[in-house]
Amino acid sequence: xxxxxxxxxxxxxxxxxxxxxxxxxxxxxxxxxxxxxxxxxxxxxxxxxxxxxxxxxxxxxxxxxxxxxxxxxxxxxxxxxxxxxxxxxxxxxxxxxxxxxxxxxxxxxxxxxxxxxxxxxxxxxxxxxxxxxxxxxxxxxxxxxxxxxxxxxxxxxxxxxxxxxxxxxxxxxxxxxxxxxxxxxxxxxxxxxxxxxxxxxxxxxxxxxxxxxxxxxxxxxxxxxxxxxxxxxxxxxxxxxxxxxxxxxxxxxxxxxxxxxxxxxxxxxxxxxxxxxxxxxxxxxxxxxxxxxxxxxxxxxxxxxxxxxxxxxxxxxxxxxxxxxxxxxxxxxxxxxxxxxxxxxxxxxxxxxxxxxxxxxxxxxxxxxxxxxxxxxxxxxxxxxxxxxxxxxxxxxxxxxxxxxxxxxxxxxxxxxxxxxxxxxxxxxxxxxxxxxxxxxxxxxxxxxxxxxxxxxxxxxxxxxxxxxxxxxxxxxxxxxxxxxxxxxxxxxxxxxxxxxxxxxxxxxxxxxxxxxxxxxxxxxxxxxxxxxxxxxxxxxxxxxxxxxxxxxxxxxxxxxxxxxxxxxxxxxxxxxxxxxxxxxxxxxxxxxxxxxxxxxxxxxxxxxxxxxxxxxxxxxxxxxxxxxxxxxxxxxxxxxxxxxxxxxxxxxxxxxxxxxxxxxxxxxxxxxxxxxxxxxxxxxxxxxxxxxxxxxxxxx
Length: 701
Prior knowledge:
By secondary structure, this protein is mainly α. 78% of the residues lie in helices and 0% in strands. The radius of gyration is 30 Å and the shape is elongated.
């Protein structure tokens, strides 16, 4: 038994090290290209007799990512941020060279201000503000002891960044090759996977496999990440191909379909109406499993189109039939069942319409033939940005006080590392685990560099001899990046590895300098880790509350008479960002509470979709009476209240239903009636969502 446990433990350890002894081809290419670029940058810096050549290698690793498009985008914004930061750093030194307190306050304001603004950016535009903050702090703190060298420091740091960016771009272009073909294939593969999953979940719903639905809640996170990555296809592709835009539209529609599937599944827990559809669910389940293959293969397209049209027509006829005989649901129980059945059919018909649109954009992505624009949405929140500003400014201010009190020789370097780590750690969605991973990577960098500085470097007297040692360390770090769990640790290791080895043209680092530098690095990493727990501590409950509050606020804004009504795809794409952010911060809560938040958030998005549809119907149909518009306005007002009254909301809903029943031609109101029924079906979850959100607010306060 003990031998079996030892063997299983050994196998577990070996599987964790698979990235090292059995790396993937892409990981090997990435490690070799980045290591080669870093070493060439280091060699050029030695050849040019620059004062701190290790910054060239650090820049290569900072820029390094898996694809050329990401490198191009990140490098572009890094250069912009570097230029702005270098100018700002010189201005800070010129303003307060002899006033430590004002100098530190100004550095803190600059760094925290840049991080505050970056919270409202998406993708690698964040790096412009991040690099502006880091470069400004670096130039100011490096030259504060000798203000006359300010321009030289700014020029050298800018040269390192441009050199590192150029080398990484050169080597990645050589290694990756035809990047357009690779990126398009990658996006098509990911889109196909998500389309297949969407159809499979719809099929599972009809088959009654609700367990599979609950297991696939993480698909919203995958779609969000893929949506962010689609921007880089636009960078690689021709300007008129619109590949990424069609991909984003496909993902937005898939998100809407999934939201409706989960809402329908939750609705049917209380009122199962599958039995009223006869054997249709089984036939639909089989059809939607095969649908993605038929669409991609383009075989029997006429049969596919006819089958899909028949299914849509069947549900539309059901809607017209039920809508024409719809009566007040309070009159008898059979009427309530009819209402549930009508809502059931309305959601399915809505999903079928979305699926048709989904495959139109999916096919247009494979063979783009029309111009289209689709905005990239990301999660933004003023409170989150404000707390980020407070944390970073407070950390730099406390670091400055420590420097002033202790008169530490490496105090300026300590604050510089605080600025750099703050810009990296506090701008992530999960600062606490990231800070812990960064601290572990820092400790490992100190351990490895101590061996290199005291054991290996004394045996090498030329750059060529040192190269063999450094290449091994760089390649191992490059392979570790491919393992997602170790990515943060590796970033910390890569940055501080070059700082602590301290290559120089004239000399190698001595023991005293190394110990002071290692202590400074260790203290800064430990200090930043503590700030995530002590200075305006980061909390999953706070973050999930902000996301929930934003979901509710956005629904309430739709109930006003807004001039510009967003499309349903725009609404879904924007609100999915809030949904994903909320999901990432409720993972540690009990499953029952997670479900309340999940279905409440979906209900808020679904209600928003129906409000948009009804508003568009009112805008397009000029024949609707003022009485109907007034009733709908009152319903919106009831939904908008901070503490919704369910009885009042239902009363207004029934008044709208009665108004529609009094009309001679009810067919014109089928779509409005369907939207009203779907909206009403989600009100209970939405009201529970508001209650649980307000309760969490009281707990936070």
